[in-house]
């Protein structure tokens, strides 16, 4: 397959134009998003919906997150990621496959319908996780485009995926919210360095390959004109395009941050062999088997699963 | 001398009430600050004046900062502090003593009159520095009360000092601005741990003694109700009380931060022997010789010094 977005091959970084549409064959007739929403996403590469989930729903989601993390407390399976300096569980991956509640959540029409509209097709989950980031000593995460990694290490052919972060704690400016460079999704930053095998074992904690250079970040910021922060109350939901440059600062505040995170990929954009010429990353980071389009479901999150018809 | 604020002696941290007034014998008749300003400072422990210096003055200040840092590029004197991972100068201390321009700046009536009013007496400079904090990889600095260190390691007897930070680059929420816990200056957090000799050599980079515990920070935040960020355009000036709990997150944005920093101490609060039973820190961190009250001066920063009468 033709590599539309080569990276990690040249000695010097470079910036090329995006080759895929941002919104794929959709109009405001095709889903819940209106023209303003679509225009904002096209221009800025993200959409933030304050209070898309109610406080009652947030309470359920927070409890389920804690329940899942408690269940995994003693596990040493690779999809459970812990804090470097303590034993605390920081992320549980693949929750749409290994947890009944989060499997249901991943099909909730309130988020799936938006993903379908943005990607102009049926969708499936390429990666999911729940995150609990501690206060006081919360580490930041440097600027990166998810797509660069998904393309090079997972074999995602096109920019036709969207990340959905359901924010489960209030996000303030000072507790390490996600920062985004508006408009950065229109450009592809070709990074330097060769990808080592099993790079993911290191890169989940701190990325050093697939990291954009300073000049490219400066250039994107000059184009975009500003840095936006995904702040908002618990229950807000952030959708951001696969190639939007994002990162976060550290968090010395006592206020921890938690979220549920789903990457929706177009059913027409299934993974092929990684473009970095390495073995594919594990299934919990990039689903490639048993791919089926999600059937969006309407249900009340605050009711037990057995109450469903 | 009686130690009003013991710290680093007990096995467990504790919080006591402040024993000094916040505003010392002053009213709105005594200086440039009005009643609202004084009330805000009394309640919150800081005051931020947007654009106290004009953009023309900021340009002069920025150039003088660069000039001074360039002059000190090759120096290996201890008052020049460099980045851990590069050779770049990060801070130059004692600029009110070793640099003609910053000596003049430290006597500018626009800042000295405010310090005098807050401290209710004549003032002198206890510590000064200019800072250039890089973008992309700027480190944060954990919560601390300056007074705790000044008391224990420098022998400052009372809470009767104020820090003045002249902000020389635009401070945004996302480039690591100073964070403050409003009202925290009313309480003294007694820290644990014993102070090693020459602790300052380490603590200028990362503090590990005199660091407040998590429970105390939580308690202060609950009392204060919020965290405030010192954001604002270049030329803004932040005054914050010696005991106000403050810190900063990291800065992944490309935008560096620079400032000129003066600690004004009351002439009635001169340093004695350190309360931690260690040798006093060097003069460049804590002035104790040739202390004379500052005579506030009115002059035009954008005019050369020789234009003064």
From TrEMBL, chains A, B:
It is an enzyme of class 1 (oxidoreductase). Involved in the biosynthesis of 5-hydroxyectoine, called compatible solute, which helps organisms to survive extreme osmotic stress by acting as a highly soluble organic osmolyte. Catalyzes the 2-oxoglutarate-dependent selective hydroxylation of L-ectoine to yield (4S,5S)-5-hydroxyectoine. InterPro entries: EctD (IPR012774), Phytyl_CoA_dOase-like (IPR008775). One of its GO terms (molecular function) is oxidoreductase activity. The keyword Iron applies. Belongs to the PhyH family. EctD subfamily. It comes from the Bacteria. Its EC number is 1.14.11.55. Keywords: Dioxygenase, Iron, Metal-binding, Oxidoreductase. It comes from Aquibacillus albus. Its cofactor is Fe(2+). Coiled coil: none annotated. Homodimer. This is Ectoine hydroxylase. Residues 1-35 are annotated as: Disordered. It catalyses: L-ectoine + 2-oxoglutarate + O2 = 5-hydroxyectoine + succinate + CO2.
């Amino acid at each position: 397959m033709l590599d539309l977005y080569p990276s990690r091959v040249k000695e010097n970084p470079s910036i090329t134009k995006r080759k895929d549409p941002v919104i794929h064959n959709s109009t405001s007739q095709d889903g819940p998003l209106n023209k303003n929403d679509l225009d904002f996403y096209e221009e800025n590469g993200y959409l933030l919906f304050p209070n898309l989930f109610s406080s009652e729903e947030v309470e359920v989601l927070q409890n389920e997150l804690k329940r899942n993390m408690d269940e995994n407390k003693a596990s040493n399976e690779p999809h459970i990621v812990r804090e470097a300096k303590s034993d605390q569980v920081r992320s549980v991956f693949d929750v749409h496959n290994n947890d009944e509640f989060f499997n249901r959540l991943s099909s909730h029409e309130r988020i799936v319908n938006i993903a379908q509209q943005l990607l102009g097709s049926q969708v499936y989950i390429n990666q999911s996780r729940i995150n609990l980031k501690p206060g006081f000593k919360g580490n930041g995460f440097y600027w990166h485009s998810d797509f660069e990694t998904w393309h090079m290490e997972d074999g995602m052919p096109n920019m036709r995926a969207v990340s959905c972060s359901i924010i489960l704690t209030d996000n303030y400016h000072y507790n390490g919210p996600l920062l985004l460079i508006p408009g950065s999704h229109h450009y592809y930053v070709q990074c330097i360095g060769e990808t080592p095998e099993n790079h993911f074992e290191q890169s989940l904690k701190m990325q050093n390959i697939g990291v954009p250079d300073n000049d490219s970040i400066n250039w994107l910021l000059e184009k975009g004109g500003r840095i936006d922060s995904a702040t908002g109350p618990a229950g807000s939901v952030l959708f951001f395009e696969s190639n939007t440059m994002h990162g976060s600062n550290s968090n010395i505040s006592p206020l921890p941050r938690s979220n549920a995170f789903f990457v929706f990929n177009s059913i027409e954009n299934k993974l092929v062999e990684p473009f970095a010429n390495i073995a594919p990353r594990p299934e919990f980071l990039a689903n490639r088997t048993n791919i089926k389009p999600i059937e969006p479901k309407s249900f009340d999150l605050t009711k037990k699963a057995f109450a469903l018809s």
